[in-house]
Amino acid sequence: MGHSVRPDIAAVSRIAFDIGRAIRALMVYARSPIVAVPLERFKQSGVPMDDTNEVERATERAPRRLALRIALGVVSMVVFVAVFFLIAGRIDWLAGWAYLGLTVCGQGVSVLYLWRKDPELLRRRAEMGEGTKTWDKACLGLFGTACMAIVLVAALDAGRFGWSAMPVWLWPVGAVPYAFFFVLITWAMAANTFFEKTVRIQHDRGHRVIDSGPYRFVRHPGYLAVLVGFLLPPPLLLGSWWAMIPAFVGAALLIVRTVLEDRTLRRELPGYKDYAQRVRYRLVPGVW
Question: 126, CA 20 to 30 Å: which among 63, 87, 110, 117?
Answer without folding.
Answer: 87
